[in-house]
């Protein structure tokens, strides 16, 4: 994995070309758009994208206009991983048969948390198991945002959504967020990482590493949605930063099954700093916040333990 | 040309090999399994250089084919019954996205109840899917139509995927004589796929954009017109194949229709059995004929009317029920082909539900039942042989 | 501008990449970013965080927002480490 180490984005080698272009219909302050724009910069021109139905697809492909500067295909909601598998298989065989010139083209599947954790999980699992040379990017805004903020299995505990509204009986989402990176890791693929747009160079580096690695790669990208999370449009990046700093969304890489935590600081800030910025958590009482803090602490300890058991040695 | 005894499924696999398919993605389901198994062998042995993608569901199978076709690869899949049902979202999408490919549908009953046996309920599920659809009568036709399918669907005037309906078990698992076409002939007839549009970083396009109400009808009309216009290409290509191999396929094929007053109309392999009954009845001096409908979509209105000129009573052999509706789908379409025109009176027999064996004697019985059934209204249909 | 069914490419394929750039998303905003060049140290974080890709580098190395696209979300102003950007109401 020495070659992966060499891939690192900094101010010096920051690509200036845009492949997710202006004029897209994203909300003001869309954290997902920031993350996607950065990811596409990291990937560059020689990329083919298969995209799920969702926010990204809707804001970027209103016929007859498109915000994409790379070849892009949308088919349906649940089959991104299958479509990109077909793209990868086609390129592989056509190059082998000499019908296409041999060149490296990144095959990238892009979907939201809905299209990955729920309806898209089967296709993802199949693609990862089959070992296609693809990169799968999950842009996680923690709900079915495009259809109007309904809960997904990636919605965090306690969050308000239109299908997990707080009331007398239940207090918002009552289940804990499905751990998609761990599901990807369980498929024994060469590269899994988590990323946040608040750490843009780290995000770009991980996206590029995932694309360059041979075999399936999965990068889970935290994507704040001011519209659905009920926060001002100018706070998306701060929320994305606090999610990492509080340990709600820790940053790590798992390379060939070996763990490396990329948290900026060892100490975690209290989760309340993250929760209080978002209207979707406004209804939480102290007891619930304590519960969330407890869980974050537990998960953080587990993560550190795993990283110490199977550390990635540089 | 080599004449061999082949199981229908194996004949299809042979054709896929000779067509130099690039990507095969399929999920096993009875009675399609022998096609998939044979193709796995062919790819594993290196006889065919292709990517065999062992997908985790039928929905993903067609999704992989869509992704592959969008990149300019020749893609193939096959499925049956409930597998098709799962795949259906993608079936409509593949044709609406105008992506050439060939699918063999090994017709099997849709659940419930579960049954692996053959009828056309799965075919009727995708009647409106926008694919070019043919019903083959035997293993030879199934083999031939793989080549025809790629040639037609990849034509830039067409760009519509091609579905071959092949009766499960009756055709997939029966061993029949098949004439294999020489590879040079196939290669000349079927050059490599040259897509009109493909995903290529040198020329970035967007496929699958969403369309608003103010433009959607235009997209659908364009698709409808393309499917109707493909009729011309289909007939031309089938004629070309006729010249090359001596096997001329037509959208409809008539037997003993010239002076027929009665006729059966069938789709798929049951027609071959009906043919025996027709020959038997002819010997008895009855003026009976048979029309085999081969091209289901685009529907051959003109040819159908022409072929059935003079027929007074048409006994349609439907292989699926439209519950609570007008009976069988084929009778419905045939009746509408003659709407407000001089045409035969239609008796709708629904036959062989879930593969129930139907012999030539049964067709003779149906012929004898027909006059009485005509007295009932057009909404009436009869599930032949059902135990009351 | 509605297309006739004959003009639509098969499968409604879009062949012009980035044609979304036709849309003046700048019409959406209520506020616009204003940069104080005295404070700006050309770090480029605003360029990275703009969801629209509307911020571009000038010849001098400063960063400005293309008002044709700027939706006025305020991320650049909020994230600027030097506090060099202020959001000003559009009148």
Shape of chain C: elongated
Structure summary, number of beta strands of chain C: 4
What is the ordering of alpha helices and beta strands of chain C?
Answer: EHEEHE
Average pLDDT figure of chain B: 96
Low-confidence stretches of chain C: none
Mean pLDDT of chain C: 96
Q: Which CATH class of chain C?
A: Alpha Beta
Q: At the first level of CATH, what is the class of the largest domain in chain B?
A: Alpha Beta
Q: What's the name of the CATH homologous superfamily of the largest domain in chain B?
A: Thiamin diphosphate (ThDP)-binding fold, Pyr/PP domains
Helix content class of chain C: 10-25%
How would you classify the quaternary structure? heterotrimer
Largest interface: A-B, 47 and 44 residues
How many domains of chain B? The number is 2
How far apart lie the N and C ends of chain B? Answer: 51 Å
* Unreliable spans of chain B: none
The side-by-side strand order for the widest beta sheet of chain B comes to: 3-2-4-5-7-6-13
CATH topology descriptor of chain C: Alpha-Beta Plaits
Q: What composes the largest sheet of chain B?
A: 7 strands, mixed
Q: Structural class per helix/strand content of chain B?
A: alpha/beta
Biggest sheet features of chain C: 2 strands, antiparallel
What does this 3D model show about the protein?
- The complex is a heterotrimer of chains A (about 325), B (about 400) and C (about 90).
- Chain A has about 325 residues and is α/β, with parallel strands linked by helices.
- Chain A has a single domain, classed as Thiamin diphosphate (ThDP)-binding fold, Pyr/PP domains (Rossmann fold), CATH 3.40.50.970.
- Chain A has an eight-stranded mixed beta sheet, sandwiched between helices.
- By secondary structure, chain B is of the alpha/beta class.
- Chain B contains twelve helices and 16 strands.
- In chain B, the strands form three sheets. Chain B has a seven-stranded mixed beta sheet with strand order 3-2-4-5-7-6-13, with helices on both faces. Chain B has a six-stranded mixed beta sheet with strand order 10-12-11-14-15-16, with helices on both faces.
- In chain B, strand 15, helix 12 and strand 16 form a beta-alpha-beta unit.
- In chain B, helix 1 packs across helix 2, helix 3 packs parallel to helix 4 and helix 9 crosses helix 12.
- With about 90 residues, chain C is α+β, with helices and mostly antiparallel strands.
- Chain C has a single domain, classed as Alpha-Beta Plaits, CATH 3.30.70.20.
- Chain C is about 10% helix and about 20% strand.
- In chain C, strand 2 and strand 3 form a beta hairpin.
- Chains in contact: A-B, A-C, B-C.
- The interface between B and C is medium-sized, with 24 and 14 residues.
- Strand 2 of chain A pairs parallel with strand 9 of chain B, so a sheet runs across the interface.
